[in-house]
Design brief:
mainly beta; eight-stranded mixed β-sheet
């Protein structure tokens, strides 16, 4: 049948409607070739071909659908974020059940689909990063994203905070999966049914054979992340933004990684020495010696480091003592040479906990009675041979940290990435360069000390986004370090200083 109309204002214009064994079929275009507008309300065996959202055509799902592909959508000539499908409140079918029914004709351009609160939106994208502006403009949360006609082979970049789930399309290759900066609401990865390169377990993204762990969703609720026995490789930044992870558990039989255990609740594994610990927190006391006197000038009459200051400093350091060394539960390579990751929610000992532990009896150390006011939970120390990108990404409990790297030519990019409370870093490294983006978006970071004797060069964008930075100190002397233009954000006044030579 051609011509005519569908009543009840369901379809305003159309080209032809005819009966098939599958039910009613509608081509959503007029006889003169213009595009149809209005609402198509379907259920059961109904099929709608060639929906052109540019005209405002919207398909309403009124009930359960029986056909595999009841609707085909042509995305040509319409803007991102156009609504094309919605679900009636009394449809009797869930969004999850119905989403798989809809196909998009790509028209030579890659497309994406958004399933938002019972409505489907379509648009154009060449990468996941292209979604951010459109999704934010929709002002919706709880968004899941898929790419039904993607041809791009790589996937990396920053995703909108509104995205909670992402389907990896078949076009993405194993080598093309890069770092995904995900929002805190992101809870689940999915893999296209035809994708043979990736797999998902408990929402986490793995290689198809499970030997490589690519990414853990930031909304992951576990506090100890299991590293499965089959895992032999872990992607950089795999737990960035995972605010609940405080430790790691490596499965028996895994010979690629090991986890350093956290401090036991009864402190039974508080070590008397840092030997054998790759990451630890010094638990100390400071018993001031009233006879020491005021600190003398570091500079002698000859302009060099004064012997009086050196002697005073040695005596000052002797006022420190140790309760012990609390292990920090980092994930390590099996040989212990590389710290793979520090958990974002790592638990550190506080001064209050030290007071609670020792103040009831009063500690007798080196013949002195140490009172609660003398307790100190020292700066966390991390030692390793080499670094990896994103090792400390998103660590929310770190305020001050010391890192000793024994063999490297430069710090890793994004070594400290979005550590929101970090104010101080001491680096003892044999490197010549501080890599670009090493301290990206550590907005409270004010001071970095380079505790090595080699000349250090701070490269452009090393402190990208570090808007509070004001002081760099070089062990080898104030003239031993240099910084390229653009090493830190414009507007920051940063002093380069160092030990007197």
């Amino acid at each position: 049948m051609t011509g005519g109309s569908i009543t009840n204002n369901i379809l305003y214009t159309y080209q032809e409607t005819y009966s098939m064994s599958c039910g009613v079929r509608v081509l959503a275009a007029t006889d003169d070739g213009s595009m149809a507008a209005g609402t198509f309300k379907i259920s059961g065996d109904a099929v709608v071909d060639e929906v052109y959202p540019a005209t405002g055509a919207v398909v309403t799902v009124a009930g359960a659908l029986n056909n595999a592909t009841p609707i085909q959508i042509l995305p040509s000539a319409y803007t991102n974020g156009t609504q094309v499908v919605e679900f009636a409140s009394d449809a009797g079918v869930t969004l999850a059940e119905a989403c798989g029914y809809f196909t998009v004709k790509a028209n030579g351009t890659e497309t994406w689909s958004l399933y938002i609160n019972g409505k489907i939106y379509e648009g154009y994208a060449t990468s996941v990063s292209d979604l951010g502006t459109t999704i934010s403009s929709l002002a919706k949360k709880y968004v899941t994203v898929s790419f039904p006609n993607a041809t791009f082979t790589s996937m990396s970049g920053t995703l909108s905070d509104y995205i909670t789930a992402l389907t990896v399309p078949d076009s993405v290759t194993a080598s093309g999966m890069g770092f995904l900066d995900l929002g805190e609401n992101f809870s689940e990865f999915k893999v296209a049914s035809s994708n043979s390169k990736f797999s998902v377990s408990d929402g986490k993204l793995y290689s198809a054979d499970g030997t490589k762990l690519y990414r853990v969703p930031p909304a992951y609720t576990g506090t100890s992340l299991p590293i499965l026995a089959a895992v032999t490789e872990i992607a950089d930044g795999f737990i960035a933004g995972c605010k609940n992870i405080a430790s790691f558990t490596v499965a028996s039989g895994n010979t690629s990684f090991k986890a350093q255990a956290p401090l036991a609740s009864d402190w039974s594994n508080l070590a008397s020495s840092y030997a054998g610990l790759e990451a630890y927190q010094e638990l100390m006391y400071f018993k001031a010696d009233s006879t020491l006197g005021a600190e003398p000038s570091m500079t002698g009459s000859d302009g060099k480091l004064s012997s009086e200051w050196t002697e005073w400093n040695n005596q000052y350091q002797n006022q420190y003592g140790h309760y012990g060394y609390a292990p920090i539960p980092v994930l390590l390579s099996y040989d212990g040479k590389t710290i793979i990751a520090c958990p974002p929610a790592v638990k550190l000992v506080t001064q209050a906990e030290l007071m609670e532990k020792y103040s009831s009896t009063g500690a007798q150390l080196s013949g002195m009675t140490v009172s609660a006011s003398d307790y100190e939970a020292g700066t966390p120390v991390f030692t390793c041979t080499t670094t990896r990108p994103y090792t400390f990404a998103g660590c929310e409990t770190l305020t001050e940290v010391s890192v000793k790297i024994t063999s490297t030519t430069a710090t890793s990019a994004y070594l400290f990435y979005k550590c929101p409370e970090l104010t101080y870093v001491g680096l003892n490294i044999p490197s010549s360069n501080i890599a670009a983006y090493s301290f990206t978006d550590c907005t409270k970071l004010t001071k970095v000390e380079f505790l090595n004797t080699n000349t250090t060069k701070v490269l452009k964008d090393s402190f990208s986004g570090c808007t509070s930075l004001n002081y760099l100190w070089f062990q080898a002397g104030e003239n031993s370090g240099s910084a390229e233009d653009g090493a830190w954000p414009s507007g920051c006044t940063v002093t380069l200083s160092g030990q007197v030579n």
